[in-house]
């Protein structure tokens, strides 16, 4: 059975994955995407609302349990970005950032 800490951790991990995935996919042109991502505005909205909901509930549960646990959850969010860059077909987060920076005017 899930206790509050386990549920909070799962919700925040899922929210972090969905949010980072959505953010990183939006930065790429549709032809550059090597992963599945919604093309319609409704699909993107549903994806964004899902991570916002998961994050809100997860953070509420986390900070209700303890402040250090909430801080740890926030740090974990940033640790999810390098694996997601690899999922999108880049060598790593640095390769992804360089690719995005080259596209800026």
Topology:
Blueprint lengths: L3 H24 L13 H25 L1 H13 L1 H7 L5 H11 L2
Helix pairs in contact: 1-2, 1-3, 2-3, 4-5
Describe the structure.
Keywords: Membrane, Transmembrane, Transmembrane helix. The chain crosses the membrane at residues 49-80. It is a single chain. This protein is mainly α. The protein has one domain (4-103). It contains 5 helices and no strands. Helix 1 (4-27) packs antiparallel against helix 2 (41-65) and helix 1 (4-27) packs parallel to helix 3 (67-79). The radius of gyration is 15 Å and the shape is globular.
Task: Give the structure's gist in a few sentences.
The protein has 105 residues and is mainly α. It has one domain. It has five helices and no strands.
């Amino acid at each position: 059975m899930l206790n509050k800490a386990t549920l909070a951790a799962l919700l925040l991990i899922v929210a972090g994955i969905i949010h980072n995935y959505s953010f990183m996919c939006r930065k790429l042109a549709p032809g550059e995407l090597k992963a599945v991502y919604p093309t319609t505005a409704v699909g993107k909205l549903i994806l964004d609302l899902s991570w916002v909901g998961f994050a809100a509930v997860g953070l509420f549960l986390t900070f209700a349990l303890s402040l250090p646990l909430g801080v740890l959850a926030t740090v974990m969010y940033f640790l999810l970005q390098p694996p997601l860059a690899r999922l999108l077909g880049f060598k790593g987060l640095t390769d992804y950032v360089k690719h995005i920076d080259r596209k800026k005017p």
